[in-house]
Write a structure and sequence with these properties.
The chain has 17 helices and 20 strands. It is of the alpha/beta class. The chain has 3 domains: 75 residues, Immunoglobulin-like, CATH 2.60.40; 372 residues, TIM Barrel, CATH 3.20.20; 55 residues, Oligo-1,6-glucosidase, domain 2 (Alpha-Beta Complex). The protein has an 8-stranded parallel beta sheet. Strands 14-15-16-20-18 form a 5-stranded antiparallel beta sheet, covered by helices on one side. A hairpin with a 3-residue loop joins strand 15 and strand 16. The longest helix is centred in the middle third of the chain and has 17 residues. The protein is globular, with a radius of gyration of 24 Å. The two termini are 15 Å apart. The structure holds 1-deoxynojirimycin. The site of 1-deoxynojirimycin has 9 residues, from loops.
Length: 549
């Protein structure tokens, strides 16, 4: 692969937003915290690696694969919940946030995994699930026993029902997983569950609740974790009086990102809770951090979660929401960087996670989806800020069409089988061998079935193939680590032909992505990485390159 000979045309970008290049933070002597340009690798524990042969991934499996993560070249991991849980929502229904569920191991396994990660130079961040608990948590069990008006019920959101017999829910809010957000208990009261009925929402207006989460955070910080991912950060505050919402208005807005019409999310006093998390983190040394899961349509309101005394990062879902296309990507990059810059915060970039359809599938699946996914990864890994990879991104995994009987996501049942839920993106990773479970487990099965054709995508198969997606990621991550320009805020759009985008990082690092139907001429420079074959000076469709000019 060689560089092209056309000269660069440097003008402000076609979207009209001019982003002035900024001085290299390193040059200016500014100190960046480790997380500001870290590559985080999300481990969905059930699906990463099974250490005890029962078909479900666990902490011993993570510990045994630390070498893989180090060689991949990521800086940190984010572990989705491994806490005690009846697993009504894949562990996001926590019955003891300070213990490990037996299916994932023990606290000793956690400590060993943490030590192994730290010894390999990897930071460890864990999920914090503050919006709700499991209905099996002792607090909720006590609330059920204690009855209406009790202090125990005040930790949750219990209300009397409407209608003459109180047999209608207290308001019209829907659950995120389908049906009403309220469930009635035998004494006639109702409790709020924005997710599954097994996940009662907590009442953050009750000081006992923030105090408990301060304790939970300290429990893990004292053990040595480097930070948290805050689940449903935007849902923790509820409006006074819990009024009905205008469902017609909410539906008419037809956006996956909640707007202010949806009263379940993004109430102003949520920021008090974010500040509380920050205060706890700042009691510790080592730049401990928190990233929020914040789904909010309005950019300024989204950015408010990462003001200087709140969370450190907020997931940026704009690339997840974008259709495949240079214009769409440019708009996503521009708007999210502008929002973060307005509050002096660091950007983050996400293509997939355990809640969405994997990006190979979103981009069309098959060969075309895989090609586009590699090009998108190259862009993702060259943007200023933190990057979140989802386990399996580096293998080019697509969503799997699972049989009905395999589905476990509560969305499948709650939606009356209208929505197949998120299991298709949670299938365990293929590690080695010719047959399922492909070294994921020493046993004979995996908690979700793995497609036989994944033998070609196993880690073992891809390590042996220089052109594999895994080796591509390893190459990109190696270059990213060694390229000072990529560890600064410097970013400048470069004019590029229709259907493509191009930007510069620092003085000499240039990125070009072509999503148009025809090849585009490459600017001058040496190709240091490309997501697919480059045809001389021409960048083929659905391909991206890194150049040094
Ligand atoms: C967001 C998590 O990512 C998702 O998996 C979970 O179902 C909900 N929050 C509820 O905790």
């Amino acid at each position: 692969m060689s560089g092209g000979s056309d000269s660069l045309r440097r003008v402000s970008n076609p979207t009209g937003t001019h982003v002035p290049p900024t001085a290299d933070a390193q040059d200016s002597g500014a100190v960046r915290a480790w997380w500001q340009d870290a590559v985080f690798y999300q481990i969905y524990p059930r699906s990463f690696a099974d250490g005890n042969g029962d078909g479900t991934g666990d902490l011993a499996g993570v510990r045994d694969r630390v070498g893989y993560l180090r060689d991949l070249g990521v800086d940190a991991i984010w572990l989705s919940p491994f806490y005690r849980s009846p697993m009504a929502d894949g562990g996001y229904d926590v019955s003891d946030p300070c213990d490990v569920d037996p299916i994932f191991g023990t606290l000793t396994d956690f400590d060993e995994m943490l030590a192994a990660c730290h010894a390999a130079g990897l930071r460890v961040t864990v999920d914090l699930v503050p919006n709700h608990l499991s209905d099996q948590h002792p607090w909720f069990q006590a609330a059920l026993r204690a009855g209406p008006g009790s202090r125990e019920r005040e930790r949750f959101i219990f209300r009397d029902g409407r209608g003459p017999d109180g047999d209608e829910p207290p308001n019209n809010w829907p659950s995120q997983f389908g049906g009403s957000a309220w469930k009635r208990v035998p004494d006639g009261q109702w409790y709020l569950h924005i997710f599954a009925p097994e996940q009662p929402d907590l009442n953050w207006d009750n000081p006992e609740v923030p105090a408990e989460f301060d304790r939970v955070m300290r429990f893990w910080l004292d053990r040595g974790v480097d930070g948290f991912r805050v689940d449903v950060a935007h849902g923790m505050a509820k409006p006074a009086g819990l009024p009905d919402m205008d469902m017609e208005l909410v539906r008419s807005q037809a956006t996956v990102m909640p707007t202010s019409a949806d009263l379940r999310w993004d109430r102003d006093h949520v920021h008090d809770y974010m500040r509380g998390f920050r205060r706890t983190l700042e009691d510790y040394d080592g730049d401990r951090m928190a990233v929020g899961e914040v789904w909010v349509a309005d950019d300024a309101r989204w950015a408010a979660y990462v003001r200087s005394d709140e969370l450190n990062l907020a997931f940026n879902f704009k690339l997840i929401e974008s259709e495949w296309g240079a214009d769409e990507f440019r708009a996503a990059i521009d708007t999210s960087m502008a929002a973060m810059r307005a509050v002096g915060a660091t950007s983050s970039w996400v293509l997939s996670n355990h809640d969405v359809v994997r990006h190979v599938s979103r981009y069309g699946g098959g060969e075309i989806g895989a090609r586009r996914a590699r090009a998108a990864a190259l862009v993702q890994l060259s943007l200023p800020g933190a990057v979140y990879l989802y386990n399996g991104d580096e293998l080019g995994l697509a969503n799997v069409e699972l049989p009905d009987e395999a589905l476990q996501d509560p969305i499948w049942e709650r939606s009356g089988h209208a929505d197949r839920g998120r299991d298709g993106g949670r299938v365990p990773l293929p590690w080695s061998g010719e047959r399922p479970p492909f070294g994921f487990s020493n046993g004979s099965r995996s908690w979700l079935p793995m497609p036989p054709e994944w033998s070609k995508l196993s880690v073992q198969a891809q390590l042996a193939d220089p052109g594999s997606t895994l080796n591509f990621y390893r190459h990109l991550l190696g270059i990213r680590r060694q390229t000072p320009q990529l560890h600064t805020d410097s970013f400048e759009w470069i004019d590029s032909p229709a259907g493509s985008l191009s930007f510069r990082r620092g003085n000499s690092f240039v990125v070009v992505l072509n999503t148009g139907p025809a090849p585009v001429s490459l600017p001058m420079g040496d190709v240091v990485a490309s997501s697919g074959p480059v045809d001389g000076d021409l960048l083929p469709t659905d391909t991206a390159v890194w150049l040094r000019d």
